[in-house]
Design the sequence.
């Protein structure tokens, strides 16, 4: 017949727990910082791409011989610039 052994109570090492929690907090902070940096880089690239698009659209508008096409293209370019400025400002504030 097999003998029964009493179950052992697991030990809790508070110092090891605090050390592990500190490493997890540090890792989380690095992940958040990296995510913010990547977000800001994405916003910069988005803004640069739209600026190039607006510049191209304004050049096309200037080359048109039709006044209504020029006015429409310039209005659209201004709209895109304004919306982009608001969007990127808000996104940067959220990431700060």
Sequence:
């Amino acid at each position: 017949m097999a003998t029964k052994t009493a179950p052992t109570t697991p030990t809790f090492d508070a110092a090891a727990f605090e050390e592990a929690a500190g490493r997890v907090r540090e890792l989380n902070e690095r992940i958040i910082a990296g995510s913010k940096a990547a977000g800001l880089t994405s916003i910069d690239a988005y803004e640069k791409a739209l600026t190039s698009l607006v510049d191209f659209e304004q050049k096309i508008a200037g080359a048109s011989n039709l006044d209504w096409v020029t006015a429409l293209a310039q209005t659209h370019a201004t709209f895109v610039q304004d919306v982009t400025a608001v969007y990127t400002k808000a996104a940067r504030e959220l990431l700060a």
